[in-house]
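Side project, low priority. Logging it here so it doesn't get lost.
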Amino acid sequence: MMMKKKQDDLKEAIFLLKKKQTVELKLLKEHMQTVKESLKPVNLIKGLFRQVTSAPEIKGDILGSIIGLATGYVSKKAFVGGSHNPITKIIGSLLQMGVSNVASNNSDSIKSIGEKLFQLVFKKSDKTALKNSISDN
C-alpha cells in the first residue's frame, strides 16, 4: 500500500511538472514572438524615434534645428527667387547656411517672437470678430 501511494505521488508530480512545462513553453513562445516583433527594423526605428523625441533637451534641439532649416530655406528662396544665375544660387546657398546656423542657435528668441506675433495676430482677429458681432446686433 505504501508503494502504491509513492507511485501515485510520483505520477501526480510528473503530471504537475508536465503541466508546468506546457505553460512555460507557451509563455516562452509568446515572449519570443514579442522579441521577434521588437527586432523588426521598422519597430527598432520607431522605438528609437520615440526615445529621441521624448527627451526634453532633444525636443528643444530638434525644434531649434527645424526653425533654423525653415528660416534658412525661406531666406534662400526670397533671395534667389526664380533666378538661374549660378552665382546668385551659390550666394543663396551660403545665405541659407548662415541664416540656418544663426536661427538654430537663437531658436528660443525666435520662438518667443513667433509666439508674441501669433498672440498679437489672433488677439486682433478676436477683437475684430467681437466688434463685428456687436455691430451686427
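Brief comment: The first helix runs from residue 2 to 38.
Revisit when time allows.
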